[in-house]
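Hello,

Our lab assistant flagged a job as stuck in the queue for most of the afternoon. It eventually completed. Since we weren't sure the result was trustworthy after the delay, we are filing this so someone can double-check. Below is the sequence as submitted and the structure that was eventually returned. Let us know if re-running is recommended.
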Amino acid sequence: MKKLTNKELNQVEIALTNVFNSATNNEISRGLNWYSDANVICNNLAVKHNVDVYKVAGVISALSPRNKWDKNIKDAETVIRAHNMGLPPESVKVSTFHSNKFKAFNILKGNTTITDTSLKTFNFVNNIAYLDANSLTVDIWHLRGCFNKTIKIDNATIGRIAYGQIKDLTVNIANKLGLKGYQLQAIIWIAIQRQYNN
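-- returned structure --
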């Protein structure tokens, strides 16, 4: 997916607004608090284990694929604790791919840095580490909200320009609603999963 036309952007705005309007009060409440709760978790782990909060967020992000949130946090603490004890990646088990576990250890060692060469990861890490209002996580669920709730993971690749357009549009919609971009994204994330699974 490359640059979106004005017509496509208008369609995305309508689609995202419709998803937001379909959200239950409970989904809105959960979405409003999701990133602030994640930020507290990151900061608590950072203080507890004397690790930079950005690295903690990077570890959480690295361990997130196919991993439930509660288990993701437990895995992150397991990895951080093992790293601080000088243990190798092979010494711990996590609920995601081995390659992601090794990536998490490399983040802690400073061998890997989260940069905007991976836009989704970069934005997610900045959202949960700093509650950065200029960052927005455009993942498969957000794309399903934008275009089609049945969009497949294989079709979820977007270019840098389209990512920027969707990010800016979502932030603008959020601003009109009196929300932060990441709050609207979290609400959409929760609501679209419910729609997708029904």
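-- support follow-up --
The delay was a queue issue, not a problem with the job. The result is valid. Residues 6-197 form one domain. The mean pLDDT is 94.
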